[in-house]
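Example record used in the benchmark description.
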Amino acid sequence: MPRELREIPPTLRGELIARMCVAVSTGLFDGAMNYIWNAAILQLRTKVRNFGLPIVAQIVQSDFEENDLLELQDSRLLELCLKLNLVNEDGFSLISAVTSGTASLQPIRRSAKSMTANSPPF
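Model output (structure tokens):
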């Protein structure tokens, strides 16, 4: 597992990622999925916060403060991130499929238009 951990940028190697790696190495794959999901949601909340809560409030046309961000359900957070262009449509589709339980292990076929070096799925 250490080799795989080195592939993750240091800024993203938090406690949840380390726990995920330990869970995978011990065969606790459900736990690993929970850890990686929580890490992704925390990262998305950080992206929304960095985008600027006053700007988000203008875009959603209602009050939007830190507490609103923390109380936002994961599915609503994903929709907000799509609206703010913090995730692209491919990433949104993949993450939405995971939340609905319809994800498959097949690779995503990305269109040439959406494949750029500067547009990761999230």
